[in-house]
Write a structure and sequence with these properties.
40% of the residues lie in helices and 14% in strands. By secondary structure, the protein is an alpha/beta fold. An eight-stranded mixed β-sheet has the order 3-2-1-4-5-6-7-8, sandwiched between helices. The protein has a six-stranded parallel β-sheet with strand order 11-10-9-12-13-14, with helices on both faces. Strand 4, helix 5 (98-111) and strand 5 (118-122) form a beta-alpha-beta unit. The mean pLDDT is 96. Bound molecules: nicotinamide-adenine-dinucleotide. Residues 9-15, 32-35, 38, 84-87, 99, 102-103, 124-125, 158, 160, 162, 270-271 line the site of nicotinamide-adenine-dinucleotide (NAD).
Length: 445
């Protein structure tokens, strides 16, 4: 079988793993990015982003990865182009498709001279209506060609979690394909037959259904998270309650699966927090209300405050508070919309002395927080100096805390937001608190 040559436009957190995975599956690939530094890194065989497994995949498949410096090469040398450029949120919560339109305009201009069929695949997250009203119009105008005849246009959103991108791309639960026409959808489905390690369901539909499904899946998942956090808040004030026991019980019901269903801290990162706002903005435009999305967002916004409330009784003048985990989740250096940043800001308002530690995201934290906080060189160093420790991400590195011994006169307070540690295995000088658990009261005799 002759594999199509594929191109990826936008080589960031999603685009560069997509490029490397396609190369690993035997596709000849061409990448393009407006950022020269990103292009230069990939040309040298260096991953432009920190993502587990990406560097080795790039190194092993360098011969099938080319980086173009213009759109003409992208269009001339490949027959399928995936667009993975950013779609940042507007002030009203909508996703801006400006960068997608720039990419599509440039692709369209290069398509003018092409005589053969080309498939354009938008992977960037867009909202219902964008494919038909904006992206199609721009591409047809720039190329002077007809969609469905000269080129195909698909919406193919990605469902990936940073830190797990390679696995998630190659082993999706399903692939969502919003297609302009049969031919376009079939070509993309054929690509995934080769690309995936597993045999996912290939869900083919029109653009608007795929657009709505993408945003709905993300907001549904965040609703599960906020629901579990609502139960966690309740558990904290109910004597002997433990949200873990409650959510595990719920997850035994076949209608509720356990994924993303733990009461702990809120969600963060580049996608989840803005999805509910975007759904709310869309509902408003349609003259409707997305009440569930709004409530999910409200619950998420008060999670950092909930942490502060829990440790406030221990906060004295000049108390040293250590935050463990600055990224929005383990195994990534991304700190965008991280709950830890919100916690730091709340603590600084209360004049606490804040130190932070993260195995991967310390540099990113420095850029964001500057001199407002201190940075621990190691887990042990940070913990020794701290009066209060907030364990904010369930990073396995922090399991080491259970081996630490202290000669401290005063007790340290440790708030474990993810109930990662076993209290019994901690040094006796640590007073352990767990988010999502109520105080223990004596059982009846
Ligand atoms: N990161 C995720 O976890 C994730 C998950 C699902 C969907 N998405 C979506 O994927 C899209 C990309 O996200 P990301 O996280 O990879 O972004 P990113 O910021 O990490 O990378 C985007 C890259 O696109 C480049 N770029 C911008 N405009 C360009 C243009 N006109 N031509 C060529 N390159 C251009 C940038 O230089 C950058 O390298 C967004 O729509 C996002 O919502 C991201």
């Amino acid at each position: 079988m002759i594999l199509p040559k594929i191109s990826v436009v936008g080589l960031g957190k999603l685009g560069s793993p997509l490029l490397a995975c396609a190369a690993a599956k035997g596709f000849s690939t061409v990448g393009y990015d407006v950022n020269d530094q990103v292009s230069a890194n990939i040309r040298k065989g260096e991953s432009p982003v920190l993502e587990p497994g990406l560097q080795s995949l790039m190194s092993a498949n360098r011969s099938r990865i080319k980086v173009a410096d213009n759109y003409q090469t992208v269009v001339r040398e490949t027959s399928v182009t995936f667009i993975t450029v950013p779609t940042p949120s507007n002030a009203n919560g909508r996703f801006s498709v400006e960068m997608v339109l720039q990419a599509v305009r440039a692709l369209g201009k290069s398509l003018v001279k092409k005589n053969s069929y080309h498939l354009v695949v938008v992977v960037s997250t867009v909202l219902p209506g964008d494919m038909r009203q904006n992206i199609l119009v721009e591409l047809e105008q720039a190329s002077s060609k007809k969609c469905g005849k000269d080129f195909g246009l698909c919406y193919n959103p990605a469902f990936i979690a940073l830190g797990n991108v390679i696995h998630d791309l190659l082993n999706p639960d399903f692939v969502l394909i919003g297609e302009s026409d049969q031919r376009a959808g079939k070509e993309l489905a054929d690509f995934y037959e080769v690309f995936c390690d597993n045999k996912p369901n290939l869900l083919r539909m029109n653009w608007v259904n795929a657009e709505l499904a993408k945003i709905a899946i993300n907001t549904y998942v965040t609703t599960k998270i906020s629901f579990a956090n609502m139960l966690a808040e309740m558990s904290e004030v109910l004597p002997n309650a433990d949200v873990e026991v409650v959510t595990k019980a719920l997850a035994n019901d076949r209608r509720i699966n356990p994924a993303y269903f733990r009461g702990a801290l809120g969600y963060g990162g580049p996608c989840f927090p803005r999805d509910n706002l975007a759904l709310g903005a869309l509902a408003k435009e349609l003259g409707l209300q997305a009440n569930i999305a709004e409530a999910t967002d409200q619950i998420n916004r008060r999670q950092a405050f909930r942490v502060i409330k829990r440790i406030e009784p221990y906060l004295k003048k000049q108390t040293k508070v250590l935050i463990l985990g600055m990224s929005y989740k383990p195994k990534t250096n991304v700190i965008e919309s991280s709950q830890s940043i919100d916690i730091v800001n709340e603590l600084l308002e209360l004049n606490a002395l804040v130190e932070v530690y993260d195995p991967l995201a310390l540099e990113a934290a420095k850029q964001k927080l500057g001199h407002r906080v201190l940075y621990a060189n190691s887990l042990e160093q940070g913990v020794r100096k701290a009066d209060i420790i907030i364990l904010a991400t369930p990073d396995q590195t922090f399991l080491q805390l259970m081996g630490f011994k202290f000669k401290s006169e005063t007790k340290k307070v440790l708030l474990d937001c993810w109930r990662l540690l076993d209290e019994k295995r901690l040094d006796k000088s640590i007073q352990y608190l767990a988010l999502g658990r109520g105080r223990t009261v004596r059982k009846p005799a």
